[in-house]
Structure formats: C-alpha cells, structure tokens
C-alpha cells in the first residue's frame, strides 16, 4: 500500500514539473498602450513586446468584452478587425479612440503556428461622457479621505452593471471584492486609490482616477475632464471642515499667484493649463499640510 501511494505521488510530482517547465518555455508578451488617458478622437498605439526579441513573430490583437456571468474571469477577448492573420509590426494603431476599452495581445510564428501566452490586459481610459454608459462619483470629486464612504453610480443603456477598479499595482477587481453592489450603485468604505469605471455587457463608461488620501487635506477637483474654453474651480478641503479658506495652490510644484482665499478659478481652460495641481492649508491644525496632486 505504501509503495503504491509513493508511486502515485511521484507520478503526480513529475507531471507538475513537466507542466511547469513547458509553461516557462512559452514567453508571455508585455502590452503597453500610449497614451493611456485619451481625449475624444485621439489615436492610441498598442505595442506588444516579446522577450528575448527575435525575428519571425506575427502579432495578434484582442479587445476585451465584459463577461457579466463571471465573478473572476471578467472578460472574453475578441480579435480586432482584420487581425486573423496578425501583423508583422509589433504595434497597432487605434484611430479615433472614443471610450474606455481593454486590450490584450499575443504573438505567433512557424507552421503550424506556435503561440506565446497572452499578455495581461491593458486599458485605455477616457474621462469623457458616454451617454450609453456613465459613472458618477459621490461625493463628486477625485480625492477622498480614507475614512469616507464612497458611492459609484452607473447609468446608461443597460439593466445590469458592475463597477470595476484597477489599483496602483495593476490588479483588476470588481465592487463585490471591496464594496457592495446594489442595483446600479457600488457603495464602499474600503476604497483604495485607482481607476474606477462601470461596465455592462456591451459598454464601458467614462473612467475616474480616484485618490484615497490618508492625510487631512484634499484637493477638490471635478471628476470629469474639463473642456477647453470652459471654466473650472479647484478647492481645498480639511477632513474636519467643508472647505479651507486660507490656502495656497500649486501647479507642477510651483506656487500659483491667487488673490482668492479659498478657491482657484481658471475661467477659460486652455491646453497650457494641463498639469498636476495640489493645495496646502496655511493654518490647518496639523500645520502646513499638503493635499495629494
């Protein structure tokens, strides 16, 4: 009996070693997207890199399709139009990217074709309005205190929604892991910094890059991008107060001359106003504390 058990265990171990060895021989490409955040009509370049680089690869490109029936494998992947034979180039340009979308790639060569593994999924984010799928964040700002409750609300042409997140480590998860999905709303007290969006079977919503701040001062800024020519107002909020009124604002770490005491108003936004903004409370109880950018 002991001999039989040892033989079975030995065979099982050998099979695992052989399987692992085979998997290690198959390269996994790395997919990058540029830019990762888009404005309507932008072109986006997907690049599929195989290591070590060698000749003869053809590259295959896939778009993510939400699978609402799965709680773990969130997507199926569909070959992009004209992609059945692959491309000789390791890059693929998407023209007129409008909405948030996810992509994968793999490479193949030889006859019969020997394929690499699939890359990880990479997303191209859009903060713009999509009437068919829309994310609303409450409270309506991009920065939130770590102790705050957060509601993420999905609206559009669907009766079934889920809220998704990619955290700062690139891990993709749904609301069911860090909140409670009730109808089309995800409520959570355990949000972390990352990019959030809504999904239905056929649509991705606008995305919101949310920062969860453990300090006592946050920048109050709109969730959605500002259209050129429109105005935008930034504020500074203390954890224990609605707004601070004795603050400084910074763009790209440079102090902005600002006559208003508690707000920064940009009356007609231009491309030159793009940048990283933060605020600092001059007389907050904790001293000169600064928000996240």
From TrEMBL:
Gene Ontology terms describing biological process: cell surface receptor signaling pathway; immune response
A Pfam family recorded for this sequence: Ig_2
Annotated signal peptide: 1-23
GO MF terms, alphabetically ordered: transmembrane signaling receptor activity
Domain Ig-like: 27-116, 215-293
Annotated Gene3D superfamilies: Immunoglobulins (2.60.40.10)
Keywords: Disulfide bond, Signal
GO cellular component, one term: external side of plasma membrane
Name of the featured protein: Ig-like domain-containing protein
Species assigned in the record: Gasterosteus aculeatus aculeatus
């Amino acid at each position: 009996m002991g001999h039989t058990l040892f033989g079975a265990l030995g065979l099982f171990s050998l099979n695992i070693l052989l399987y692992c060895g085979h998997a290690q021989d198959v390269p996994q490409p790395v997919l990058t997207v540029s830019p990762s955040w888009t404005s309507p009509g932008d072109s986006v370049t997907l690049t599929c890199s195989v290591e070590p680089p060698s000749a003869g690869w053809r590259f295959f490109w896939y778009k993510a399709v939400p699978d609402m029936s799965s709680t773990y494998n969130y997507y199926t992947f569909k070959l992009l139009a004209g992609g059945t034979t692959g491309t000789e180039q390791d890059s693929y340009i998407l023209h007129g990217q409008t909405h948030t979308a996810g992509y994968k790639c793999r490479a193949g060569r030889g006859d019969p074709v020997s394929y690499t593994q699939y890359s990880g999924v990479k997303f191209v984010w859009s903060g713009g309005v999509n009437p068919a799928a829309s994310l609303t964040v409450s409270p309506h700002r991009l920065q939130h205190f770590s102790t705050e409750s957060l509601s993420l609300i999905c609206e559009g042409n669907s009766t079934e929604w889920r809220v998704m997140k990619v955290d700062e480590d690139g891990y993709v998860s749904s609301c069911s892991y860090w909140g409670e999905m009730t109808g089309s709303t995800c409520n959570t007290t355990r949000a972390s910094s990352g990019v959030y969006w809504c999904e239905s079977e056929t649509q991705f919503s606008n995305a919101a890059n949310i920062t969860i701040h453990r300090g006592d001062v946050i920048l109050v800024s709109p969730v959605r991008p500002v259209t050129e020519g429109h105005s935008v107002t930034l504020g500074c909020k203390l954890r224990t107060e609605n707004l601070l009124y004795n603050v400084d604002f910074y763009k790209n770490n440079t102090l902005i001359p600002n006559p208003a005491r508690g707000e920064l108003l940009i009356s007609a936004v231009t491309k030159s106003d793009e940048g990283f903004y933060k605020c600092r409370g001059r007389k907050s109880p904790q001293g000169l504390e600064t928000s996240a950018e």
